[in-house]
Each structure stands twice: as structure tokens, then as C-alpha cells.
Amino acid sequence: MSDERVRYSDADLQEFKAVIKEKIEKAERDLQLIRESFINDQNNGTDDTSPTFKAFEEGAETLSKEQNSILAGRQEKFVRDLKNALIRIENKTYGVCRVTGKLIPKERLLAVPHATLSIEAKNMQK
């Protein structure tokens, strides 16, 4: 029997699935918090402050909304990538590098469960 496995065992895939589901739950909670803070347009009562401070505050509020929008986009991509990893688990292709065809080390997948490239393939991109 060859030292190089073609795919992870069903038991390994179930372990990865549990890790990914947990990460999805946390990522979706985080995304909800980001969305809530983005949608929260409550006025903090700055109508009585001087116009100079109000302009600074409005600028900061705009910047904060832009940052939240960027964060929300990243978080949505992260959730989508994790859900795609679940599909790869169901297809039993999870953990196989899409460039080299070799198994991505288990340690890497536990750290970055949505990874589709081995470190070797990632380094080839540079």
C-alpha cells in the first residue's frame, strides 16, 4: 500500500465536518453582529454639539460604516468558503490540494478548514 493517501478517511472527514460546522456557527454569529452594528443608525444626540465636532463625528461614522461593510463582506466570503468545504466533505474531495492533488496536512486543515491549497501549491503562486 502506498504511503500517499488519495483522500481522508470517512472518520477524518466527520471530524473536519464538526470543526467546520462549529466555525460556521461562530462566523455567522459574528456576521450578524457586524450587520447589526452596520444597520444601527441610532443618533447619539450630537445635534447640540458644535458644527466642527459634528463634522468630525459624521466623518468617523461614515468611515466606521465603510469598515463594517468591508468586514461584513469578508465574513460573508469566509462563511461561503466554509460551506463550500462542507460540500467537498460530502463529495469526499475535502483536503485534496486543487493544484498538486496531494492531501493537505491535517494540521493545516484544522487551522484553515476552508483551505484548498497545500503550502507547496501556495508557495508556487508567489
TrEMBL record:
Gene3D superfamilies: DksA, coiled-coil domain
ZnF (dksA C4-type) residues: 97-121
Ranges of residues in domain Zinc finger DksA/TraR C4-type: 93-122
GO MF entry, a single one: zinc ion binding
InterPro entries linked to this entry: Znf_DskA_TraR
PROSITE patterns: ZF_DKSA_2
Top-level taxonomic group: Bacteria
Pfam families, A to Z: zf-dskA_traR
Protein keywords: Metal-binding, Zinc, Zinc-finger
UniProt cross-references to PANTHER family, sorted A to Z: RNA POLYMERASE-BINDING TRANSCRIPTION FACTOR DKSA, RNA POLYMERASE-BINDING TRANSCRIPTION FACTOR DKSA-RELATED
Protein name: Transcriptional regulator, TraR/DksA family
Source organism per UniProt: Chryseobacterium oranimense
